[in-house]
Amino acid sequence: MEMLIENILKNNTSGRRSIQQTQLRIQVLRSLSEIIRGHRDCLEKARRLGLVETLSNCIRDGENTTLTRWSCYVLVFMCTTSMACLKEIMGGHAGDKDDFMEDALKILEGLSWSGWPKNYATILMEVLGLKERQDRIDPRLLAGFNPAMMH
Question: Is residue 29 part of a domain?
């Protein structure tokens, strides 16, 4: 796992990556998502190896929308499973708001997520407190609502 994160995901080459390099990075993220979903100790190891920062950078860079979507997906899982991951990514939001991340997530949120079960950019924004959850019911809408009248 260390080799995958260090040599493939963090591989910061100058200029644009080739299509093959980007496709390899996407496949590595897909594989890592399965590994860390199945093994919590692997999730913690990936966090210690800097995966949270690497994925955050992938989102900020917006190099490839598929890579960015996978980065959102993995970060959502990591942040909702591990408080340490959430604290790490929120560290960028303490005091100084991470406008680059927020802007990148807003752009990504507006893209089509067809083929995905959910819009993980929206979920990540909610997890990070950058957006109000959409599924909450506004209490003002319930004013005057009487469940006894439902038949």
Answer: yes
